Amino acid sequence: MDRAGKLIARMRIPGGDLSPEDLARAAWPQAVGKKIASHALAVSLARSCLVVEVEDPVWRGQLARLEGQILARLRDILGPELVTRLDFRLRIPRRLPQPAERRQGCEDEADGIRDPVLRHLYKSSRRRSSA
After folding, report:
1. Model pLDDT for residues 4-50, shown as the tens digit of each residue
2. Which value, to the nearest 10 degrees, does the dihedral of the CA atoms of residues 33, 47, 72, 89 take?
């Protein structure tokens, strides 16, 4: 627990008690390093099992092979009882922003009005309401 105290002191967290989950999540990057932590995020602690979301199945497989070493590092940082198991789960992919749809052929919605008089009335009415 001495190392956990040093870790917390370096994090400069404002006053207040930290939950065991907060401690485990804060210790994750220290235990695995910045590179792995950028691909795998500790999200929760349930009954001494740290749930870690990973980018893809390849990372999941690699981290599963390193589970023993990672647990040893977490025990060094947090003590022997806080984290006893790791659960690697695939991160739900976030949908990236999509480009806006472009209409094909129609520059103006009024061009869809067949009657020329109604089209003219619609356009002039739209201009007056926007001014």
Report:
1. 556 555 655 554 578 899 999 999 999 999 999 999 999 999 999 99
2. -50
Element containing residue 16 per DSSP (H, E): none
pTM as predicted:
0.60
Domain contains 67:
yes
Residues 6 or more apart whose CB falls under 8 angstroms from that of 60 comprise: 54, 88, 89, 90
Q: Are the C-beta atoms of 86 and 49 separated by less than 8 Å? A: yes
pLDDT tens digits, 53-100:
999 999 999 999 999 999 999 999 998 889 999 999 999 877 778 887
Please state the domain count of the chain: 1
Q: Classify residue 119: in a domain, yes or no.
A: no
Residue 60 lies in a domain: yes
Q: In angstroms, how far is the first alpha carbon of the chain from the final one?
A: 68
Residue 25 belongs to a domain:
yes
Measured between alpha carbons, how far is 115 from 82 in angstroms, rounded to an integer? 75
Identify the CATH number of the domain in which residue 78 sits.
Answer: 3.30.300
φ/ψ region of 33 (left if φ > 0, alpha if ψ in -120 to 50, else beta) reads left
Q: Which domain holds residue 33?
A: 2-90
